[in-house]
Amino acid sequence: MINIPSTVRISFRALRVNKMRSALTMLGIIIGVGAVITMLAVGTGARQRIGEQIASIGSNLIMVVPGSTTAGGVRMGAGTQPTMTLGDAEAIQKECPSVLYVAPVLSGVAQVVYGNQNWSTGITGTTMNMLYVRDWPLSAGRLFTEEEVRSAAKVCLLGQTVVDNLFGGINPVGQIIRIKKIPFTVVGILEAKGQDPGGHDQDDTIYVPVTTAQKQLFGTQFPGMIRTIMVKAKSTEDLAAAERQINELLRQRHHIGQKQDDDFTVRNLTQMMQAAEQSTKVMTLLLGAIASVSLLVGGIGIMNIMLVSVTERTREIGIRMAVGAKTWDIRLQFIIEAIILSMIGGVAGIVIGIAGSKILSMLFGWSTIVSPLSILLAFGFSGIVGIFFGFYPAYKASLLDPIDALRYE
Amino acid sequence: MALLEAQEITKTYRLGDIALNALNNVSLVIEKGEFIAIMGPSGSGKSTFMNILGCLDKPTSGRYMLEGVDVANMNRDELATIRNKKIGFVFQGFNLLSRTSAIENVELPMLYDGFSVKERRQKAAAALKTVGLEGWENHHPNQLSGGQQQRVAIARALVNNAPIILADEPTGNLDTKTSAEIMELFVKLNTVSNITVILVTHEPNIAAYSRRTIKFLDGRIISDEKKIA
Question: Which end of chain B, N or C, is less surrounded by CB atoms within 10 Å?
Answer without folding.
Answer: C
